[in-house]
């Protein structure tokens, strides 16, 4: 994100943007330097203009919206199915029911394995969905390309959805065989989801092809700089908006389908919507910008790192850390510095080395995300279970989780069109790393809210610290008189944390990765959620009465401390934001001259 105290254009200015070359433009970058069919004829800013002109985002191309719709349909199917997983696993099949429906006054359920089992299985599913992106990234970058890998991912996930429906149909749901079918469905769906997620995110951002700052004049006469970094940020803001439209509609519809019809319908409807994915992908296949596979770049990257680390190993950990993080670590590994001793495998230019350095710095930022995701993951299990112990007044207990995507749908446009422009106008540099810090803070606050609510649930429930299993002599659940809408604070705070941390993480993964490793770096970002799910398994013992206050409190404290340490770790990197964004694409796998410059 740009560090100048400039402002993104208002919605009114958006309509006034003109690509006419200003009559008074002088002292600009030589136009012939960028004759690539993308930047031809554009006017580039002088150094003075970079510091003084207001910065705006460019228009998002329409083919990006097509891919965003594919993501909407996929997220509808993902969240529409998974929102009812907790009840499917935890709660018992209602007496006399063959579908799991609880109807107006009952609690929907199926397998009756309890809260710890439901938390364990849903956490495993999250872990699996976020470890498989590494495989998807490798396949895409090395063999098939992103678009083709997404097509395969859709087919795999569709098979998983069909197995999930089988686990919930009458005649199966009443028997223990439903457990096995459900677990197989999770594994197959998670594989398809992982192959999809690592490639759809970079694919949408690649639809915008400009990479350099350029100057335009609005119809009002103002000269402004169009910043590709702001444009990529906007692409991911609205990409996330589409995600949450799909999640909101899917979750609301499926919670009521589960409650009044049964789990088979709650799993069938998402599958039908999911079928829109291959249709839209194939219809628009000739419109999409597609990056071809580049071979095993990962091996070249590892060789480069090993070459750069040569002679820097030490038994003294302090000395080794200093040598491995020295300013000349990557500089001495550039091809131009090797002279006649350049290895044969070093078939890349100096600029690609800078890209790899930048990408690894981004991965270092992502290493803090597992702690953040611990707070977000409470949405999928424990907060749903908490709602079941409160007065829902006829609402399905898992419908409250929809407050998160609902809040995101409202606040994403507000942040993009009002909050962020206002901050730039008053001179506040709300850079990507500062946004991530804000995500940690708001995530921690959400957990504090949940801990306080849980404390009062225990105080007001007829069974005290056994609120989750409280029932009368006839087996009817006894709940706290607290209104379930008190949970709103947790969901809204988590939504803000997603705007700051999750969206920015997608943006950071794309903009900081080497061009031919974008799927891989995106997969590393997603993999942090898998690590978080694994860490979450360690806290499963806290996911039951009477320890739930401790569960939320520990999550909040961890996120708060991690946010503080995170900022001390990245504050120097934050100052280099513009410098990192200015690194252009390098070349690998092409002939380079002795100066380390691509000959192509």
UniProtKB/TrEMBL annotation:
Keywords: Membrane, Transmembrane, Transmembrane helix, Transport. PROSITE patterns: PTR2_1, PTR2_2. Its main location: membrane. The chain crosses the membrane at residues 125-144, 151-173, 179-200, 235-254, 260-283, 359-376, 405-423, 435-457, 484-508, 520-542, 548-570. Residues 10-23 have a biased composition (Basic and acidic residues). It is a multi-pass membrane protein. It is found in: Membrane. It comes from the Eukaryota. GO terms for molecular function: dipeptide transmembrane transporter activity. One of its GO terms (cellular component) is plasma membrane. Residues 1-23 are annotated as: Disordered. Belongs to the major facilitator superfamily. Proton-dependent oligopeptide transporter (POT/PTR) (TC 2.A.17) family. This is POT family protein. The lineage of its organism: Eukaryota, Fungi, Dikarya, Basidiomycota, Agaricomycotina.
């Amino acid at each position: 994100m740009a560090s100048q105290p400039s402002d993104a254009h208002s919605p009114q200015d958006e309509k006034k943007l003109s690509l006419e070359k200003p009559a008074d433009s002088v002292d600009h970058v030589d136009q012939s330097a960028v004759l690539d069919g993308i930047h031809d004829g554009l006017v580039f800013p002088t150094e003075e203009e970079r510091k003084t002109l207001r910065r705006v985002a460019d228009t998002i191309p329409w083919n990006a919206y097509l891919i965003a719709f594919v993501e909407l349909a996929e997220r509808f199917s993902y969240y529409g199915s998974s929102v009812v997983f907790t009840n499917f696993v935890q709660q018992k099949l209602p007496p006399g029911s063959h579908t799991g429906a609880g109807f107006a006054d009952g609690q929907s359920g199926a397998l009756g394995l309890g809260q710890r089992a439901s938390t364990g299985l849903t956490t495993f599913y999250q872990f699996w969905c976020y470890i498989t992106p590494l495989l998807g990234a490798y396949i895409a970058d090395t063999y098939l390309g992103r678009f083709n890998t997404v097509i395969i991912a859709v087919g795999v996930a569709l098979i998983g959805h069909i197995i999930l429906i089988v686990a919930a149909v009458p005649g199966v749901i009443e028997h223990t065989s439903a457990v096995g079918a459900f677990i197989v469905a999770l594994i197959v769906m998670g594989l398809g989801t992982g192959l999809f997620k690592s490639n759809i995110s970079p694919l949408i951002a690649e639809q915008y092809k400009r990479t350099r700052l350029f100057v335009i004049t609005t119809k009002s006469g103002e000269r402004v700089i169009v910043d590709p970094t702001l444009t990529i940020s906007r692409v991911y803001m609205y990409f996330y908006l589409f995600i949450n439209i799909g999640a909101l509609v899917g979750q609301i519809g499926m919670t009521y389908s589960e409650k009044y019809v049964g789990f088979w319908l709650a799993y069938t409807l998402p599958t039908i919507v999911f079928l829109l994915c291959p249709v839209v992908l194939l219809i628009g296949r000739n419109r999409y910008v597609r990056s071809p596979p580049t071979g095993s770049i990962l091996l070249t990257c590892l060789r480069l790192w090993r070459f750069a680390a040569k002679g820097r190993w030490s038994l003294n950990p302090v000395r080794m850390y200093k040598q491995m993080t020295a300013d000349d670590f990557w500089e001495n590994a550039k091809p131009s510095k090797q002279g006649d001793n350049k290895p044969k495998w070093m078939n890349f230019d100096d600029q690609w080395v800078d890209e790899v350095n930048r990408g690894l710095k981004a991965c270092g930022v992502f290493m803090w995300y597992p702690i953040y995701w611990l707070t977000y993951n409470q949405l999928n299990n424990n907060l749903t279970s908490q709602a079941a112990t409160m007065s829902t007044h006829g609402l399905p207990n898992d419908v409250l989780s929809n407050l998160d995507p609902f809040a995101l749908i409202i606040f994403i446009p507000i942040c993009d069109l009002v909050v962020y422009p206002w901050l730039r106008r008053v001179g506040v540099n709300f850079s990507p790393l500062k946004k991530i810090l804000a995500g940690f803070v708001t995530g921690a606050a959400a957990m504090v809210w949940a801990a306080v609510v849980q404390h009062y649930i225990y105080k007001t429930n007829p069974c005290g610290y056994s609120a989750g299993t409280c029932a009368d002599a006839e087996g009817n659940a006894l709940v706290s008189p607290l209104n379930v809408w008190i949970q709103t604070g947790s969901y809204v705070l988590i939504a803000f944390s997603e705007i700051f941390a999750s969206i920015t993480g997608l943006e950071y993964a794309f903009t900081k990765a080497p061009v031919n490793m974008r799927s891989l770096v995106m997969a590393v970002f997603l993999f942090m959620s898998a690590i978080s799910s694994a860490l979450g398994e360690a806290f499963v013992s806290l996911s039951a009465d009477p320890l739930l206050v401790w569960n939320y409190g520990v999550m909040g404290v961890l996120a708060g401390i991690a946010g503080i340490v995170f900022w001390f770790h990245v504050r120097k990197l934050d100052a280099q934001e513009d410098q990192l964004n200015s690194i252009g694409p390098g070349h690998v796998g092409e002939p380079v001259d002795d100066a380390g410059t691509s000959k192509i």
